[in-house]
Amino acid sequence: MHKLYDKAGGVEGMNGYFLSVRNIFYGIFLLVLCAGPVAAKDVVPQSQSQIMLSFAPLVKKAAPAVVNIYTKTTVTQASGTIFDDPFFKRFFGGGFGPQRQRPQIQNSLGSGVIVDSQGTIVTNYHVVGGADEITVALHDRREFDARVLVADERTDLAILKIDVEGEPLPFLEFTDSDRLEIGDLVLAIGNPFGVGQTVTSGIISALDRNAGMSNDIQSFIQTDAAINPGNSGGALLTMDGKLAGINSAIFSKSGGSLGIGFAIPANMVKAVLTNGLATGKVLRPWLGAAGQSVTSDVAEGLGLDKPGGILVNRVHPESAAEDAGLRVGDVIVSIDGKEVFDPESLLFRVSSGVLGKSARLGVFRDGKLISLQVSLKAAPEAPPRNIVTLSGRQPLAGAIVGNLSPAFALELGMSAFSEGVVVSDTVKGSVAARYGIRPRDILLMVNGKKIGDVEQAQKLLLSSQTGWEISIRRMGRTLSFKVAS
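The structure corresponding to this sequence follows.
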C-alpha cells in the first residue's frame, strides 16, 4: 500500500487514505478486467488430488500390460587364432589361415505389449527375429517362455504367445491412430537399457514420418517422449490409456535419446495382428498398382490444383486394382478419405487394411474426381512357385529356384511385378554359390533360349553338351557369363 500511495503523488492525511483505497480498487478492477470473465466452473480446489497433476492413475492402469522380453540367440563366429592378429590381417586379409568356428550365445532385451487377456503380445520383429529362446517377464516378475505366432520383417512387428493356463491378463486396447494429432500428449513405457520398466512423457511431434529404416512399410508416429535401446516393442499411450503405437526406433548419434523417437501406428499393428492371427502367416492387402509421386510440374499438366497423389503407370492384371477399374494414367489422391502423397503412404494405407474388407479410392481421372471401391485381398500365388533345388552337372547346381508370382516376389522383397524364375537361396558350398549366384537373381536365358519356368530352367541347363552361356537379372542389371563344358 505504501508504494501505491507514494505513486499517487504524496498526499497526506485522510485524503491520502481515500486516494490509496481508490487506487487499490482500480488496481483490482484492472486485474479482473485483464483476466477476463470468471467462468462458473472456476472454483477453489477442494482437495489435494484436485491440486495435483499426475499421470500416476494412467500408468497404474496401463503398466501391467507392458512386459519385458529377453532373448537368446546362438551365433557362430570364428575363434581367435594368430591369424586374427592385426599384423596378419593387414598383409594377408581377414580370411587368411585356418578358421575355427565356435557357437556363442547373444543376449538381447526389449519390450512388448499384451493386447488380449489370453497372453497375445505384440513387439518388434528386430527384438525377437532369429532368437532361439524368448522369455517374457510380466509386471509382477513372473516369467514365461514365449513362442512366435507371426513374424513380419516388412513392418518390423512380431506377435508372441505365452501360456497363462486360462488366467486373464491385463491388456491394452488399440486407439484409432488416424485420429491422433500433432501436439497430443503421450506416454512411452518400456525397459530402456535393461534398468526396468520406465515411463516417459512427451507429445506427438509429427505423423506419417519415414524413419529411414530397412522395413519398407513406413509411416511412423514421431514423439519427443524419451525412447532408448530396450524400449523397442514397448507402448506409446494416449491420455485415455489406449495403445497409440509400438515404439520402434530412435534418431540418435550417441545411442541415447535426442527427443526424436518413432512408433509404429496402432492401425498398422492391429492390421498385422488381425490378418496374422486369421491366416496363421504374414498376409496383407495388396492393391496391385504402381506409380510415381505427383510433382508440381506433373500436377499442373494434369490439371490438379496442388501436387500430391500417385500417378499410376502399372496395373497388375490379377490385382484388386484391376478388378476395381483403376487405369494407367489415373491419379490416386486418397484412401478412405485419407490423403496419400507418395507411393510409401499409399503402401501404408493399403497394408494397414483388413483382408476381406474394402476401401474407397479417391481417383482423379480426366479432370474429375471419382470414387472406386476396391476389395482388400492378398497378392495372388499365380503361377505356383514350385520350389526346386537345381541339380546335375551344370553351373547352377545348388541354386534353389521358384516361379515368381506377386506373393512370392513380395515375400522376397522384390517388386510384385517381377516375372520369371528367381533364385530364393543357394546351398552353401554348391557350384551355384561358387559362381556367385545370389538370392533374388532372376534367370533369363540359357544359351540364347528364354527361361519361362522352373521346369524349363532345369531342362535347358541339363541338355547342354558344349557349355553354358547364362544370363541373369540382378538389381535391374542384366549380367551374362560363360562356362565351358
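The two ends are 110 Å apart (CA to CA).
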